Every structure is written in structure tokens, then in C-alpha cells.
């Protein structure tokens, strides 16, 4: 789950027995050395795809964590970029990664719950990288409506979705087992730590985005390759505010 510089098993266990917010505060100092951080190949592929959709003036990274997605937005936005997250620890690491005065668009960090975004409709593009597993499926329609509320007319909400593992494969059973263990943990332990890998299904997400007021399309991220059946390993969901 991590490099030698990443958290120990004990540290991960303590995180998993905390709330989502406090767990990420604890994980923040070593987060970038874990497999939870979005990989550079995915970030680069998304940046290339967004360049084709731009140009954009202002961008917002949804659940920004330590700022990997903000780095992508600074490549495709010309004016201003904002990162929003509810973990003070993650935001502190992000500020160190993008110090004030760095070359490129200005960056602002905001601590907030993304289910109640504190912004006017001022953004041309909103990105999301890997945080949707921290929300239950019933929360997605309202979550997407909040994103729509901060986009300008015609603005884009974009995020990568990795193809699900083949049924019966080792990866399939690994994710199934993780989700089952997490559901058991949340049945017997409080506070809950919501982190599920099998609840963010593309068909359901596309439907919820449409209900929230988006026109939805997907594009294959060809740089990440294709599976044996010819389908892309990863797609970029592009939801444009109607």
C-alpha cells in the first residue's frame, strides 16, 4: 500500500479506526508515499485531455488532498486555481507543495465540506481525483448538484474513472474483500470511515450527473492503455453544465 517512506501498518490501522477527516489528518504527512495518491501517469493523461477541452481561466480541485489535482489545473488554467478539502492536515501539506509566489496561476486553499461548497458559480472547470469512494451512492446526486452550482454556464466537471477489474480476478476479490471489511468495521465501530472501492459505477454516475443538470460524455485516456478486450483502462468523464 505504500513505499518504505509511507505509513506503517499500525499507522494505517489507527487511521482506519478514526473518522474520515481525522484519519486523513493523521495520514497527511506520509500520504504522497502511498498508493492512495493519484499516479503521475493518470495526472498527465488527464492534463492532456483537459488541454483539448480548454482553455480555462479558473479551476477548482474537488477534495484536493495534498494537491496533486491542483498541479493538473495549474497546467490548464490561466487565471486562478482553488483546492478544497475538509482535512486541515492535507491542506497543510498542499500549501507546502505549492508555496505562495510560485510561477503559474495563483492558488488558494479552502477548508470546507464539498457537500456544501462555499463558492459562487465562478469556475470554468472542476476536477476530482480518487475521493468519490468517501461518499455513499445516495449522496452523489446532491454532491454533483453542488459541483454544478459553482460552475459557470458551460463549465466542465471532469474526473478519471478506472475500468473495473475482471470478475473473479485477484483485483476483483481484493476490492470486494476490502469493501466487505469496511462495511463490517462501520457496523461495529464509530465514527464511520467511509471508503468503498466498488460503489462508484460509471453507469450510475452518468445517470446521477444527468439528473444534476450535466450533459455527460467520456473519452478514453489512451496513454494509459487498453485491456485485453480492447476497452480502455481508464476514461475521463466530462460533464458539462447545461
TrEMBL record:
EC number: 2.1.1.163
Domain Methyltransferase: 60-155
Alphabetized UniProt keyword annotations: Methyltransferase, Transferase, Ubiquinone
SUPFAM superfamilies assigned to the protein according to its UniProt record, in alphabetical order: S-adenosyl-L-methionine-dependent methyltransferases
GO process annotations (BP): methylation
One MF term in the entry's GO annotations: demethylmenaquinone methyltransferase activity
Family annotation (CDD domains): AdoMet_MTases
Protein name: Ubiquinone/menaquinone biosynthesis C-methyltransferase UbiE
Organism: Streptomyces smaragdinus
